[in-house]
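Hi R.,

Here's the chain you asked about this morning:
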Amino acid sequence: MPWGDFYATRIYPGLSAALSWVASPFSFSLTEVAIVLAILAFVWIIVRAIRKHKPWWKCVLGEIALLLGVVAWLYIGWGFNYFRSDIYTRTGTTPMPYEEAELQEFLKVFAEELNENWCDVETVDPRQIETEIKAWYTALPEECGLCKPRRWQHPKRMIFNRLHSAVGVLGYIGPAFDELHVNRDLLPLEYPFIYAHEYSHVLGVSNEAEANFWAFEACRASEDQAVRYSAWYMLLRHTAGNLRSLMDEASWNAWCETLIPEVFVDMEVDSLHWADLRWNWLAQLQHRYYNLFLKTNRIADGTANYGQVLRLVLSLSDLHDHEHGEED
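And the predicted structure, written out as tokens:
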């Protein structure tokens, strides 16, 4: 939408810089503080109405005014990015259909890169990753439509980190102050990709598949083998379902056999790690809510949008000598 593009390119860059600068002195999430205060205000309106014996409709009007104020703040601060043009429109490209020859070429490269970049990622340096990822985003051409990184934009500590782990949230952007949040329970292997994914949201990306694409491109361009492995490993995690749907069972099993065993060990460790932290009933509830939220904000695939990164990689990455993307 034209007005969405105007917001994303003319209003959001300066607004985001200002909001994140205001929040920068605080190491913890101001967005979560704002949410808690909004909940307390919601309860206080009810309590005050009861104590003052106010008519019920005045209480309802007060709650509606509070809710509208919070929603307006969140959309003006970041949410209107949902109404911008997609990455294909911004870069003047066309989504490529899944063609067998193209897919087979990609699968060969995928397996080779995944195997060659495997390493035992025991620790990562968040500051080094931040410096490298910010430098990569800074170098992107203007046509990509992303804001330029700011030196004061650093990951914020989630106040309710355990709750986020319980519902499977690995990171998120806090739209109240355009804050970057990265879950402290992330495995070192996951950290580079998730950081790059969430930071793309701070830079104005609303589509989850696009955020995965930028994270993949940023991490695979790294000189650090652990960061490159994070790119390919997380791409596998997000696209395994899509790939399997495009292949028959024999072809899928044959491709999996080309991957080294260490990759599957990492996937097992990863799965057990998050299963131990997850509260299934709450995770399912959060998934349904977030799926509905995405669909009402022009992300038609809902949470399945994360896996649509495969089409973006096939269409925009230079893995197939396409025009756009970083050079290896």
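The two ends are 34 Å apart (CA to CA).

Let me know if you need anything else.
M.
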